[in-house]
Design goal:
The chain is an alpha+beta fold and 447 residues long. 36% of the residues lie in helices and 21% in strands. The protein has helices at residues 57-69, 159-176, 215-234, 291-299, 305-315, 320-327, 332-342, 350-358, 369-380, 387-400, 402-409, 415-426, 433-446, and strands at 7-17, 77-78, 81-84, 94-97, 107-109, 111-120, 124-130, 133-139, 146-152, 188-197, 207-212, 242-247, 252-258, 268-269, 276-279, 288-290. The strands form four sheets. It has an eight-stranded mixed β-sheet. Strands 2-15-16 form a three-stranded mixed β-sheet. A hairpin with a 2-residue loop joins strand 7 (124-130) and strand 8 (133-139). Helix 6 crosses helix 8 (350-358) and helix 10 crosses helix 12 (415-426).
Length: 447
Amino acid sequence: MEQKNYKPVIGLEVHIELSTKSKLFCGCHADHFAKKPNTQVCPVCLGLPGALPLINREAVESVIKFGLALGCSINMFSKFDRKHYFYADLPKGYQISQYDLPVCGSGKFRVNIRRIHLEEDTGKLVHETVDGVKSSLIDFNRSSVPLMEMVTEPEFHDGRSVIDFLKEVQLVARYLGISNADMEKGSMRLEANISLSRDGTIPDYKVEIKNINSFRFLEKAIRAEVIRQEKLLADGEKIVQETRGYDEVKQTTFSQRTKEEAHDYRYFPEPDLPPMRFSESQILPPMRFSESQITDLKSQIPELPEEKRKRFKEEYNLPEDFAEILVSDRKRPDYFEEAVKLGKGQTFSAKTIADLMVNKKMDANYPEPGGLIKKILELTGVEYATQSETEVAVSEVIGENHKAVQDFQNGKGEVVGFLIGMVQKKLKGTGNTQMVREKLLGKLENG
């Protein structure tokens, strides 16, 4: 068997359920997790004859915010389409999705984004034993819940970079408040399209690993599929374009069905829903957005995780791992910054607060930042002079000891100890040594 070097070419499809109050095309509750089966349904989401859909504006706005956060363009004209396929969990025999004119066009977020579109979710198959017989039941509570799909260009080449990217996408969705993106509850589902190439070009086939609900499983599935394809190509076999699942026990992928092409779905414009227009018009009929509204949605985008990490490292002098851990939870950065604000003027630094939060997890014991600061003061056990008191004492000592200052400037670093002692004398021993040294050197070195 001839061994050849192949490079994985990986593209992603990420499905995220939006945290709207109601479903995408009807007024049924969208929160379906752990609810009694088929209790949150109506003629619209069951696809009964004569029932007409109505677009959920909040869902559209959520997709726009997500697209703007990921640097995507917003299509000024967008529409819904019918995607036809027959499966038990699809009551209408087609899914209302978007094809050629999605809400969001191309963008760049670490890699190139091809599109972000909005569609309705399907029902859910539940496999149970009923009266001793293994049965597949259908729960339609999830049917028509708003589902956002992001498609990347095939620019990943290993599983680790895929997982790093997906974790950041999950964080962005949470920071925006549009979804909890909880994989255990199925509100974030992952698919990877995997091919192998020897020269870096995109191959003429792709194998889709579908409906993975764990970062760890996806990384394993990618590794298993790459090994499978390498063996086939090394044996001179042609790889079939198909959809495959992942068997965690065997740690291999398995065939599910031949992968469809776009024409297999017989897409055509959804006749029961009007197109969505994004224009300058201030006369706003249903699903028409003005540019000012798009601007307003953009202004609602908070500081995103990557920006926050960078600022925390620069502004608070935090190590990279501290910043990473603090930012990985949407509420924790706010807690940290409020604690820093409350602790300003005390003898401990922002880094000390971060250390106690990251390594000791002390914030878990104090719902309010003020409680954490009070505890830190108790732990220090010493009533140190404040930052402002220390700065005054340092300035006075420098002004009163010209010769020592001159000696320092002439390279005699040993005089620093003398000057620290003089500052402590003024503060009657209550100066924090680290703070005194920092303030003193800052004054001496910068004049």
